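Supplementary Text 2. Reproducibility record for the structural model of the 117-residue chain.

All settings were left at their defaults, and a single model was retained for analysis rather than an ensemble. We include the record here because the model underlies the residue-level annotations in Supplementary Table 4.
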Amino acid sequence: MSLQKLARELDETARQTASMLEGITDALALLVEKQMTTDPTIREAVQMIVTAMQGQDRIEQRCNNMALAVRQFALLPPTAPDSVYDEIWASLTLDELRVPALSGIAAHQAHGDAELF
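Retained model, structure tokens:
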């Protein structure tokens, strides 16, 4: 797979997660609309869903950052030193991508939230 194709796939992943979020938001609006929020169980479930949905922004940001990095990698000559690749990673805005100790760390923590990475 070419790096440009990989970047497009990451863009599409970000788009699809945003689309998924819109569908979930519509479903939650229906729950609220029907005044079912008087049931504490439904209120709790809605809050859990909203909390899990907040991770979508991080997924979208992560995909966009990786797509940007991949596009920059594709422009580099095969002889580019590792320091140039490291500089590209360091320029990203999502800490989980820049700091090796944090990369994928959400999958290894017991925090009660949805596991997103």
